[in-house]
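Section handout 9: paired folding examples.
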Amino acid sequence: MNTIFPGIAGAFVGGILGSFTTLLVHRLHFEEKGIFWGRSRCPSCQKKLGVRQLVPFFSWLFYRGRCAFCHRSISWFYLVTELVFIASFFIFVQKFYSTDVFWPLLTAVFFTLVLFVYDLRFLEVDRRISFPAIGLAFIWIFFRDAPVSDFLLGGVIGFLFYAFQYFLSRHKKNPWVGAGDMELGLFAGLLVGWQQLLVLFFIAYIFGLLVALPLLCTGQADRKTPLPMGAFLMPALLLFLYTGEKILHWYIDFFGLSFIL
């Protein structure tokens, strides 16, 4: 019997992990101590936050996006991050809670979201996140139904795709991609395999185009404005983790590329 309760439980856990991620990326980026301990503080007045100020999603709404102590505005980044985690975990838990891939898949979703948030926030990839993510993705390939070679080749292609762009443009004032994008490509390839990865890249660049064109047309960005690759690659990866096989087969049928399979 279908039930929504697993998804609700997933959303609850997602909210907690989303709140933790906002703390994690901030402390990693600014080299602050106490990732897993130490009280959260208001970024403006540095007052320690209590339980009422740390309830995911609801605290931000209750205090109307302001600190409970100094009443200064709190960035929408915290609310949106928690909402993205809540929605993602609801969707994935609801679909996969009774499958064999449940735990490794949720782990992959968590790291994908953290890498997305970090790159979107700071325009960089932190290897303290990407290396464990790559390591866990590598271990998982030996327990999957598809041939190990598909995922290994996917990792190689993902890495080389961005390595080629990086080394070709690294001496330019505005390189095409960052060094961390090679790690994101490797991570994505290990998770979805080479066939899905090729389509994933196409979708990721479509996402990027949909964001870049309005920014260019409205003058909010120009050709030299850096955009984080992870902000487009990681959402595409989430999409393929959820329903990659269907997307791949639709793409192959639409363009007549049956030789890929």
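Moving on to protein 2 of 2.
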Amino acid sequence: MLQIISMPTFKCPQCGGEFQAETEGRYHCPHCDNTIAIHLHMHGKIPWESWREKGRVAAFFETWKQVMSNPVSFFKRVPVKGNFVLPMYFGIICQSVAIILMWSYQAGFHSIPLILDYSAAFGGYWPWTAAQSWPSMTIFFLALLVVAPIFALIGILFTSAVYHSFLKIFSGASNTFEATFRAVCYASSSQLLGVIPIAGPIISGVWLLVLSCIGIKVMHQTSYLKAIFSVIIPLVLSFVFIALIAVIFFSGAILTWIN
């Protein structure tokens, strides 16, 4: 049912009847049997890239819904080149929300023991401790609003560059860097799942990898195997690198302690 909702709707020029199509090609109108040629890049618009028709907020959530409910159909309609600024803004918004939530959760959890200590030391006078803690947390949150978009953009550019480089290594890059960049930007939709308590970050992280693989596969018209390798291998290499650094660090610490 989700797939039907997310498919673009078209209007027959002869009878005015509406019908849905998932891929490009020739279709027969179910109302008058008129033959219609559908070109999804022209007819199946991306809501976010035509936001003037619905407004920014409605276009954003409509795009998010389409990505999350039927990513294959969505990425088939994403142009491989054009105005890359709008996809970039979309990715920055999604990534910024994830960054702000992550650091806000961290700040909130770390502040609990501090607040309890103050509360115990001053006889449990909660309004006093709250007055002392909220200004610093407010400043921290405002700083996040400024810094998060910068980190989000850096993350999107870096991730796109890494994916595209590995895609070239596996001979799967049939389009330019912009196609990979667009796939990464719209795949960032999963980051909004981070609002789910406890399991949110895990779910959003896994679905981000899935959306990235689908987006790269579709937009570069390559195989799923090459797309998966381009996404997973950099992740595995990152874990291996971090593990090696940890081993070197702890080995040095142990040798220093023994000597």
